[in-house]
UniProtKB/TrEMBL annotation:
Domain Leucine-binding protein: 26-359
Keywords: Amino-acid transport, Signal, Transport
Protein name: Amino acid/amide ABC transporter substrate-binding protein, HAAT family
Species the sequence originates in: Acetomicrobium mobile (strain ATCC BAA-54 / DSM 13181 / JCM 12221 / NGA) (Anaerobaculum mobile)
Entry annotated with the keyword RNA-binding: no
Length: 387
């Protein structure tokens, strides 16, 4: 009997050593994203793009010779789930960096947990300023709302010379924060806001709003929101006979928007950071391989998740897994090119700064239209986000 117990103990010891060695050969990063609920399509894009980046990193040597491992959970776009899952990833899965591939409210909840635990965190495409205000451990890869909204305002009032503007705003963190920056910029540049209303998430009937907008006779409608609602807005705008320019944001940047809006999508302008017409190698790598992986055209959401993994991997290869070294190096990054949406010029107040693009839908495809490099457009204004 003792002989068998001794053999069992030896086997357990050997297995323990093997498992420990295996664990030491991986570097874990955590990832939350909505795979169920209204945002599931974005969650799918985000997760598949993050996996694509992990595969790329591992094919090119991993993290200092170790395999990069993505540990992911479905937050259903719910802040309480995001908080609980972030704690699980930190405490149970022992991730060294957290990435949120979710919307602003869940990302904000996750950021607070990471700041408390002193674990480096980044959001991918969430725009709300408060996400990075959680503290020095929290960064953003995507476009901050003050920058994206301001870009839209410049394009509408300066490039399109729109003098009369209607605002139709999704009533959540995303829509309101974009609209605030757009409105401030457009007014500063001489435009007049002739109509302004908010609508609830999930709204499908916009004709009453649009008829009132038609009566206000605008040159342009700015309607920040997500692709489901946006498709109904642009389709119904055409139905009621509106002939003015229509402008949206990164939330429109999905093949689903064009699929739902059909020909009504043509002529719509959006602010985004994914230039599908770019000849940058990493942009084309992402577009080609995402399509190959999923049989779906890539979008801005996926590009942002891809970039988050690529940037985090770059940092881990430079400084290792020590949290303080990670956040210190993060803030020094300049001209990062290994990303789909880049280049990332720098981080200002822990938010990525990059050239800002305007895309237009032509022949049911997103196409490049205009790019901003001016500091007054693409940099954060003083006091627009906490340090």
């Amino acid at each position: 009997m003792k002989r068998y117990l001794g053999l069992a103990a030896a086997l357990m010891l050997v297995c323990g050593i093997a498992f420990s060695a295996q664990a030491q050969q991986t570097v874990k990063i955590g990832f939350i994203t909505p795979l169920t609920g209204f945002a599931a399509a974005d969650g799918y894009s985000s997760l598949e793009s993050a996996k694509l980046a992990v595969d790329y990193v591992n094919e090119h040597g991993g993290i200092k010779g170790k395999k990069l491992e993505l540990v992911s959970y479905d937050d259903a776009c719910q802040p309480d789930q995001a908080s609980a899952l972030t704690k699980k990833l930190i405490e149970n899965d022992k991730v060294v960096v957290m990435i949120s591939g979710s919307y602003s409210s869940p990302s904000r909840a996750a950021a607070v947990i990471c700041q408390q635990a002193k674990v480096p965190f980044t959001s991918t495409y969430a725009v709300h300023p408060s996400i990075v205000e959680a503290g020095e451990y929290c960064h953003r890869i995507g476009m901050a709302a003050p920058i994206q909204g301001r870009t839209g305002g410049y394009f509408a009032a300066r490039e399109l010379a729109a003098k009369r503007i209607a605002l139709l705003i999704m009533n959540n963190d995303f829509g309101v924060s974009l609209a605030e920056a757009f409105k401030e910029t457009a007014i500063k540049l001489g435009a007049q806001i002739v109509y302004e209303k908010k609508y609830p998430l999930g709204e499908t009937e916009f004709r009453s709003y649009l008829n009132a907008i038609k009566a206000a006779n605008p040159d342009l409608i700015y309607a920040p929101g997500y692709y489901n609602e946006a498709a109904n807005i642009v389709s119904q705008a055409r139905e009621v006979g509106l002939k003015c320019w229509l402008m949206g944001d990164e939330g429109y940047d999905s093949p689903k928007f064009i699929e739902l809006a059909k020909s009504a999508a043509n002529g719509v302008f959006i602010t985004t950071d994914l230039n599908r017409d770019s000849d940058r190698p990493m942009t084309q790598y992402f577009l080609k391989n995402y399509k190959k992986r999923t049989n779906i055209d890539a979008d801005m959401v996926g590009a942002s998740a891809f970039d988050a993994v690529m940037l985090v991997s770059h940092i881990l290869n430079k400084v290792g897994t020590d949290a303080n070294k990670i956040i210190q190096y993060w803030d020094t990054i300049k001209n990062f090119e290994d990303c789909a949406t880049g280049p990332i010029l720098m981080f200002q107040n822990r938010s990525a700064i990059r050239p800002m693009d305007i895309q237009i839908v032509l022949n049911n495809k997103f196409r490049y239209f205009y790019r901003y490099y001016e500091p007054e457009v693409i940099y954060l204004g003083k006091g627009s986000e906490g340090k």
